[in-house]
Amino acid sequence: MLQxxxxxxxxxxxxxxxxxxxxxxxxxxxxxxxxxxxQTEILRVGNGLSAWAGLVNPRNxxxxxxxxxxxxxxxxxxxxxxxxxxxxxxxxxxxVSHKVSPTNTALRPLPKNKVDIRFVKSTTMLPENGVNVYExxxxxxxxxxxxxxxxxxxxxxxxxxxxxxxxxxxxxxxIVAFGWWEKSIY
Length: 186
Fold this sequence. Notes:
Layout: E1 2-4, E2 8-11, E3 16-19, H1 25-31, E4 35-39, E5 43-45, E6 50-56, E7 63-74, E8 80-86, E9 95-96, E10 100-102, E11 116-123, E12 131-138, E13 142-154, E14 159-166, E15 172-184
Antiparallel strand pairs: 1-2, 2-3, 4-10, 4-15, 5-15, 6-11, 6-14, 7-13, 7-15, 8-12, 8-14, 9-11
């Protein structure tokens, strides 16, 4: 007969102990070289301008994107609004961030991300397609952390985008960061 507790599985017939280890999915994916982190450059919002930042899965990537975590650092004295959108029309002129790294830097060669962080520093353009799944308020001089645990899964051609807005008459500074993993679809 097998007995189970949180750390061991015991087989009473043979008296063999087997330790069971539970690790977070982000650590597991990092160990495999499939977890990545990165951030945008400084974005500027306010005075009628918003900014966009997102995880964009190219059509030919061959991977599904699992959005795990985002952070929004508000370097202003104003409250900001962050809209989270799925599969929206991120502007074509979005800049690809080069501030991206695998979290497991012990692997050689270093794993290369297929999903991009893209951003638009300031724009009057608002999303026309996709779904605004929720919004968050970002307090002044604060970093807001949203842990999604990989539940937002975007196929090739999909995206997970945050649109930042401010009602301030001056421009506010913001940086957005993401953590995600990638899984081959083949």
